[in-house]
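Team,

Forwarding the record for the chain on the shared tracking sheet. I've put the sequence and predicted structure together so nobody has to dig through attachments.
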Amino acid sequence: MPIYEYGCYDCKKRVNIFWRAFSEAETETPKCPRCGGTNLKRLVSKVSVLRSEDSRLESLADPSKLSEDDPKSLGRWMKEMSSEMGEDPGPEFNEVIDRLEAGQSPEEIEQTVPGLADNAPGGGAADDWFG
């Protein structure tokens, strides 16, 4: 069942039309589901590609996306990684990303955000769970 996207010149809206068959989409005149108009233009729709988790994570490991000397590229990479993981990393992580994207170095961020290193995995008070 093909779904095509159209722009309606009558109501100025973008609409989707579901066709029962490809041949029907090519031979019949599309009708706007919002206003009933027939003055439509078929648009190029976005395409979605399904990828495995392994493929998504592998693409994150691409070294060309990361520059050691550029905090902005580090911030973009961290934002992309959190988006791919599908979890909200929390306000502290988002603040670090925003600061990196603004051009602040990791060292500057560590100095200006008190307690950040203490809550990071692998260091500080977070490791003191055993008493």
